[in-house]
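Sequence only, no structure available. Ideas?
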Amino acid sequence: MGILDEAIKRAEALVKEIESGKLLEEVLNEVYPEIESYLKQCVDEAVDAFYGTYSPRYYNRTEGLKEMWEVKRMGKGQFRTSFDGNLAGGYHQNSEIIFQNVMMQGYHGGSGGKGADGIQWRRPYKKYTEWGRSAPRTSSPYDEAITQFDSIWYSYLKPKGENVLRQLGRERLYM
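Reply:
I predicted one. Tokens follow.
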């Protein structure tokens, strides 16, 4: 078999690996730990910035929003983030309400009642049996985390993944 035949054979094998997702899975194995780490870092920084916009007087901050995010690897080159309000104590609302009101809209205090003035806090302190005054609202920690992660993705993670893919492809072509 000549050099050209050998190169064609290796190229065909590489194409099969790409089509099967095997090569992408190897790239993800290489880059996924950093994706997970940077995503968690972006969420933590966004939540810290969110916490920094308001100093609570009527509740004790638990830092629980940081614990509610999970990054799960789904296989075939995919991962998913999820938000689970059950992972942190201190909230008296379900995950969906916490995610919508706190993470997406930027309301403070795990608030959830919709009144004439917007989202409201529950009161009295520690009993939380009725709706009280309007909750303060600042920026969305979710939007901030996504903006930060997008920046890291396009400036570092995507190019790194592409470089890993090129390197793995070269290794297979020139073994």
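The first helix runs from residue 3 to 20.
Hope that gets you unstuck.
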